[in-house]
Design goal:
mainly beta; 3-stranded antiparallel beta sheet; globular; 4-stranded mixed beta sheet; Deoxyribonuclease I, Chain A; 7 strands; single chain; about 10% helix
C-alpha cells in the first residue's frame, strides 16, 4: 500500500458554491467555483509550505480552468486543472489552447472519449484531443481508469 502524501491534488466537478468553505488539514485549497448551478467547479489542494504562483489564464469559452506555477529543483512547471462539461461544444483549436507549453502538466476532465486512453466509446472531442496530443507531441499519462 502506498503511504505517500501527495504534494498536489486536483479535483474537477467539485460542485462547490460561494459560502461553502472546506478545510483539509495540511493543505491550502485553491478554488474556482463554477458559475453554473448544476455542474463544474475546480479545486487544487497544495500541501502546506509549497510555494506557488497563481497563473492568470486566458478565457476559453465553455472551459473551466485554473493554474499555478511551482518552482522545482529542475525549474518551474505549470500545473493546470481543467473541466469541460459534456454539454459544451469546444473546437480543436480551443483544446489546443489548453496546453500552454512543454513544461506543463494538465490534469483534466475533458469528457473526451477515445480508445487511446482506454475508453470503451469515443466521441468527436476525443478524436480532436488525440490530434492535439499528436500535433503537439504531448504525452498522455493515465491509469487503467477512464479519464
Amino acid at each position: 500500500m502506498c503511504t505517500a502524501i501527495p504534494d498536489v491534488i486536483c479535483v474537477q466537478e467539485t460542485f462547490l458554491k460561494a459560502g461553502q468553505d472546506h478545510r483539509v488539514d495540511g493543505y491550502t485549497i485553491l478554488r474556482k467555483d463554477s458559475p453554473h448551478p448544476t455542474r463544474g467547479g475546480l479545486a487544487m489542494l497544495l500541501k502546506d509550505g509549497i510555494s506557488h504562483t497563481l497563473l492568470q489564464m486566458d478565457d476559453v469559452p465553455g472551459v473551466e480552468r485554473q493554474g499555478i506555477e511551482i518552482s522545482t529543483d529542475n525549474g518551474k512547471i505549470k500545473l493546470i486543472n481543467v473541466y469541460i462539461s459534456p454539454s459544451v461544444t469546444v473546437t480543436k483549436d480551443q483544446l489546443s489552447m489548453l496546453f500552454p507549453d512543454r513544461r506543463s502538466i494538465v490534469v483534466r476532465d475533458f469528457n473526451a472519449h477515445s480508445e487511446v486512453w482506454k475508453c470503451t466509446t469515443h466521441n468527436r472531442r476525443g478524436q480532436d484531443l488525440e490530434e492535439v496530443v499528436t500535433e503537439k507531441a504531448l504525452m498522455a499519462l493515465s491509469s487503467d481508469l477512464q479519464p
